[in-house]
Write a structure and sequence with these properties.
93 residues, mainly beta, 1 helix, 34% strand, binds zinc ion
Length: 93
């Protein structure tokens, strides 16, 4: 039997790129997020993504605060961004 306690549960935020594109209408893995708790600034694609639950959770790679989480139902998406101070999304001029 495999010892699951030694297997990291998280991937990087790029693992959720497809779902984020559905939510935001474009790829935001290069958007820069700032953690509300520790001030760490990183690209969304560099966050820690937990995708093995009923929804997706993105955590700060520095302090593990929940930055974003969402769950998708048949007709609704529930989205929270409790740990984000800001999210900088580049737009085309
Ligand atoms: Zn943090």
């Amino acid at each position: 039997m495999t010892d699951r306690s030694t297997i990291p549960r998280h991937l990087d935020g790029n693992a959720a790129a497809g779902e984020m594109t559905q939510l935001f209408g474009s790829d935001i893995t290069n958007a820069m997020g700032t953690c509300r708790l520790c001030g760490h600034r990183a690209a969304v694609g560099q966050t820690r993504a937990y995708v093995d639950g009923p929804g997706v959770v993105l955590r700060c790679p520095d302090c593990e605060t929940v930055l974003m989480r969402w769950a998708t139902g048949p007709t609704t998406v529930w989205l929270e961004m409790p740990g984000l101070r800001s999210l900088e999304i580049a737009i085309e001029p």
